[in-house]
Design goal:
Length: 311
């Protein structure tokens, strides 16, 4: 795969002594959606700010499109789009003016047809003459995305793009992000909605305390660390796990009224084992009243990884 962003040994220590980034190494491939996950204060926004020229790193190198961004910042920055967390825009300007202005900032000629396409795709065309201050929070968030897309970037950063947006608007915005990826745009996002990363991202990276803890393909991560969990309600409580069930990863809960199974992996093998477990329960005269099966989500894995790192 062709790398579009290569970060090596990136650090950032602020004047007060706080270190926000600690030797970050990260490579992003052309055309992928990469989700950067981490708790508040982990360094996500600082890392994005460093690539976008908003934060000056203390040390390290960054290559974008094969070039050193510190040497060719102006020309390379024109190929990068950023949707920030903050609603930073002139609230008294109209939607159309502020999006057109963003395109002009990067030296591109006016393109009314392209701007109309972007605004229509984000359901903003009917609001094009409205002042931004009159829009809802979700619509203001869409304006930020429109501004970032106005100069047709090859690399797009989305820092919590759907924060404060209702479910319907969030779905619409993710549909647009999928279309951007189909056009060849590389997308790096941070999000608190981890189910979005699970559904959309090709790879995920986990950052904690300014360091990248892991980077892995989403499907591979789910298969490697995913688990099946089953809660089986029993008719008669058990004092201990019967010997005939010793081959399963079981524990007792609810005072012996519930069998708790954990096993398998993200490929679904655990469900087959649970099916066999229920057959063994019946064969050995252990009656059950209910069974609740769930698969690990990316959020479960994320929380487990962070708790394991903190232990």
């Amino acid at each position: 795969m062709e790398p579009i962003l290569e970060i090596s040994g990136l650090t950032k220590t602020y004047a007060g002594g706080f270190t926000a980034l600690q030797g970050v190494d990260l490579t992003i491939n052309k055309g992928e959606i990469f989700a950067l996950l981490g708790p508040n204060g982990a360094g996500k926004t600082t890392l994005i700010g460093a690539v976008c020229g908003l934060v000056r790193p203390s040390s390290g190198t960054m290559r974008v499109f094969g070039e050193d961004i510190t040497r060719n910042w102006r020309s390379l920055r024109a190929r990068i789009g950023l949707v920030p967390q903050e609603l930073a825009t002139d609230m008294f300007e109209t939607v159309l003016h502020t999006v057109n202005y963003s395109r002009g900032l990067f030296g591109l000629a006016p393109d009314p047809a392209r701007i109309e396409e972007i605004l229509r795709a984000l359901s903003l065309w009917d609001k094009r003459k409205a002042q931004i201050r009159a829009l809802s929070g979700g619509m203001k968030r869409r304006v930020l995305i429109a501004k970032a897309l106005a100069h047709e970037p090859d690399l797009l950063f989305l820092d919590e793009p759907t924060a404060g947006v209702d479910v319907e608007l969030r779905r619409d915005m993710w549909a647009q992000i999928a279309k951007l990826r189909d056009r060849g745009t590389t997308i790096i996002l941070t999000t608190h909605y981890i189910e979005e990363a699970e559904e959309m991202a090709d790879r995920v990276g986990i950052i904690q305390a300014g360091s990248i803890r892991m980077v892995e393909e989403t499907r591979s991560l789910m298969k490697r660390l995913g688990r099946t969990e089953a809660h089986i309600g029993l008719v008669t409580p058990l004092a201990c796990i019967p010997e005939v069930l010793a081959g399963y990863n079981l524990s007792l809960a609810q005072g012996g009224h519930e069998l708790l199974y954990r096993g398998g992996d993200g490929s679904g093998g655990g469900k087959a084992e649970v099916a066999q477990l229920t057959k063994d329960l019946v064969a050995n005269g252990i009656d059950y009243t209910s069974i609740d099966i769930r698969e690990s989500s990316l959020e479960d894995i994320f929380v487990d990884l962070l708790e394991g790192a903190a232990a």
